[in-house]
Specification:
single chain, 389 residues, alpha/beta, TIM Barrel, eight-stranded parallel β-barrel, 17 strands
Length: 389
């Protein structure tokens, strides 16, 4: 069996800092609103996505609290919740994680976020240099994992001191909810291969992703471990190539050069993330070099920090690009699109059939077996397909 014989695990994104139809503009924007987030989550749950990612940061709604809210409104959807070591103790985070896993009946996934904006981290009370943050995170997860797996932990470390810590209630998942993580620096890769279950990369070119996977896989093997791999991408999928690229152009049609320059300057000044630097290097802030690989478009990264690339094209084209990543070892996709509610439908309806995913769950049959075509929703209902048509 080849890698592409297995359907991808396909998650969607909850835009907890707000959403919109145009980057760099407040036209048709949607503010952060829990009702809207619930709409996206319930749509993703029904449309066949396996889960949703909830990000973290000062501009985002708090991920654990929002995940608990969304758990009550969904049935199958897994909740990939950001956890940031350093802003709370591992024992406290273990209690949050165990309770959320119990409340959601075993639907919790955890996304470790160590890096990002040094300025924002300082506001959260984290002042460690880049590489030292990973040494701290290693001690953090020594305690966190043991609490979730055994209910007890003890560490008298350089950064973390937890003396005879205890966890009252175990998570539903055994031995604990899975740990996801993305980081491109040497320190990040060294940390990840000793701790995490799934390593995530942002949407770089296939050649760059192949190189990164090989590096991570070897580092994990050197420690006697194996990790699986996922990719974080945006999607602009339409029925034709022309429509897809027109939609990409439209997304940045109200984005000024001044806004792009300010965003790129801010990323360079405030972030010590190697991954962010790699994203910025794909396009260099220039609009004339946004297709950085066939169908891989970096226009989103002109103003968005973090994941900044989208796969653009018809369902067949985008499916072919995804198979290239699968052949490298990617088995999970964390996807998004603007606006997130409408694009969740487009990706499910157009792309899922091309990549072997089932689409909407628990659909109630709409006829007694005859093929029907949409007739506009009039009083007579839909139309039966006439033989020969």
């Amino acid at each position: 069996m080849t890698k592409t014989d297995q359907p991808l695990d396909f998650l969607w994104f909850i835009p907890t800092s707000g959403d919109g139809a145009y980057l760099g503009s407040d036209d048709l924007s949607r503010p952060a609103d829990t009702g809207y987030f619930r709409e996206i989550a319930t749509a993703a749950d029904r449309l066949g996505y396996s889960g949703v990612l909830l990000p973290t940061g000062v501009a985002c709604e708090e991920s654990f609290i929002l995940a608990a809210h969304l758990a009550a409104s969904t049935e199958n959807l897994k909740l990939l919740v950001a956890i940031r070591p350093g802003i709370a103790s591992p024992a406290y985070y273990a209690r949050l994680a165990a309770t959320l896993d119990r409340v959601s009946k075993g639907r919790l996934l955890l996304n470790i976020v160590v890096g990002g904006s040094a300025k924002e981290l300082a506001g959260d009370g984290v002042f460690l240099p880049h590489d030292e943050r990973y040494a701290h995170a290693e001690e953090f997860f020594h305690v966190f994992n043991r609490l979730l797996e055994t209910g007890k932990a003890h560490l008298d470390g350089k950064y973390i001191k937890a003396h005879d810590a205890q966890l009252g209630f175990p998570p539903v998942q055994e031995p604990r909810p899975p740990l996801y993580f993305g980081g491109s620096s040497d320190a990040a890769i060294e940390f990840s291969t000793g701790v995490v279950d799934k390593y995530l990369t942002w949407g770089e070119t296939p050649a760059q992703v192949a190189e990164k996977i090989a590096t991570v896989r070897k580092a994990a093997a050197d420690k006697g471990r194996q990790v699986t791999f996922g990719i974080r991408l945006h999607f602009i999928v339409r029925e034709t190539e022309e429509e897809a690229w027109a939609a990409a152009d439209r997304l940045i049609s109200k984005l000024s050069d001044e806004t792009v320059a300010a965003a790129q300057q801010g990323f360079a000044k405030n972030s010590d993330s190697v991954g962010q630097a790699r994203m910025a290097a794909l396009h260099g802030g220039r609009r004339d070099r946004l297709e950085v690989s066939p169908s891989l478009w970096a226009g989103i990264g002109l103003v968005r920090s973090g994941a900044g690339t989208a796969l653009v094209g018809s369902p067949k084209t985008v499916a072919a690009r995804l198979r290239e990543y699968q052949d490298l070892g990617i088995d999970t996709v964390i996807a998004s699109g603007y606006p997130h509610l409408e694009e969740a439908y487009r990706v499910s309806e157009l792309l899922f059939p091309e990549i072997g995913l089932g689409g909407p769950r628990n659909q109630i049959r709409s006829s007694f077996g005859e093929r029907q075509v949409f007739g506009g929703g009039g009083h007579a209902g839909n139309l039966r397909v006439v033989a020969g048509s």
